[in-house]
Amino acid sequence: MSGLFGLGGLLSDLPANGLGRLPQQPTLGLSLLGGMVAKPTRVYPCFELYIDDRGSWRWRFLASNYKIIADSGEGYNNFDDAKHGIALLQGAANAPSYIGKD
């Protein structure tokens, strides 16, 4: 899964409920040899997948200032469906923009 949506290591950094602070610097973890090693940091902007309080998968898009600027708007029962929602948004990157309702 690493690299598919820029999520390498991202899911393992999330608490069980999918909420928590956004890491702004490397976090430390234990190596197999008992020493401390730095985990890779996230690259921003990025998509973040997480599990909400109801156990559904959701995604959000984080800007380079770590602020959420887009979210899935709904929960998904399956991880692959949430990834598909991200892919749809990525595919619409060149979509036209309009002002107001027409």
TrEMBL record:
<protein>
    <submittedName>
        <fullName>YegP family protein</fullName>
    </submittedName>
</protein>
<feature type="domain" description="DUF1508">
    <location>
        <begin position="53"/>
        <end position="93"/>
    </location>
</feature>
<dbReference type="Pfam" id="PF07411">
    <property type="entry name" value="DUF1508"/>
</dbReference>
<dbReference type="InterPro" id="IPR036913">
    <property type="entry name" value="YegP-like_sf"/>
</dbReference>
<dbReference type="InterPro" id="IPR010879">
    <property type="entry name" value="DUF1508"/>
</dbReference>
